[in-house]
Amino acid sequence: MRRDLSAPAGAIHRRTIDSKILKKETLGDPAERLIDIYVPAGHDGRGLPLLIDIVGFTAGGPAHTNWKNFGENLPERLDRLIATGAMAPCVVAFPDCFTRLGGNQYINSEGTGRWADFLMEEAVPLVEREFGCGGKGRRGIFGKSSGGYGAMVHALLYPDFWSAAAVHSGDMGFDLMYRHEMPTVLRALATVGGTPKAWLEKFFAAAKTKDSDVHIIMMLCQAATFDPDTSAYMNIRLPVDPHTCEFIAERWQNWLNWDPLVIAEKRADDLRKLKHLYIDCGDVDQYNLVYGARRMHALLEKRGIAHTYEEFPDNHSSVDYRMDRSLPLLAKALSQ
Fold first, then answer.
1. Of 236, 256, 276, which one is at a domain's C-terminal end?
2. What's the rounded Cα separation, in Å, for the pair 152 and 8?
3. What is the pLDDT of residues 1-26, one digit of tens each?
4. Mean of the pLDDT values across residues 32-36?
5. Both 138 and 282 in a single domain?
């Protein structure tokens, strides 16, 4: 729903990627993927920076180009920001990275697929080749929640590919956000005999998806992502004893190895290669993510690594308005 009717509307181009990388993906998801590409009014894309939007859990990139009630979808937001001069023109791409387990964390995983490779080796090259945008030094990545996690990890692991990142309410501090979920997961599994297979089969067959079930499948997805067992149903292996909920040290350590805070201990200096890094989080985030964000901010400050860090008076939900702050910063950095 457009807020600024005077802002010229950019064009949305829809393409399909027949992914060779995802043909080897392990959850039975389709290798053919949609990607929407926003090009601002008055441009054909050539010479513009490129931003990649990676969305939060349960969503797919094209969801951000859909009509939205009582607020702007992302292309409408971009139209307004660019028309008012708040943001430099950019091409923005919205790849579909949804999986049967509700999404992914945008990393390469034996359990859920090579999603980092899909983005960098297939999605980005397709957009850059067709629209003449982006290129080395002019690519940025942004997202919220699981997308914020992906943006943070990509910034840490692939700073020679990406040159800017915006991390909105990203998953950080696994000890605070995941550990306390495990008893709830085990209780849910116990209602169907205790196995992820039985629970998921019931979930997939249900006529209605309950909000509480989304948290369960999210944790099963993280298990398949961070510490997969490729011999198990949908590669899911939990990091706890199913009877006592005691954490299994080796299993949990494999999760922690993917915590951005742990990765940053070794890779933070690589962030100096970025033109801009933006991190924010609501100060009453209901998933405890503000504490992980504060820890990352403190780590980066201690290392003397330039970044923008902001907290705002809100929780985890419906905070797309924060992109009014981050996207102009990324666009400015990538335009220089």
1. 256
2. 32
3. 788 788 999 999 999 999 999 998 77
4. 98
5. yes
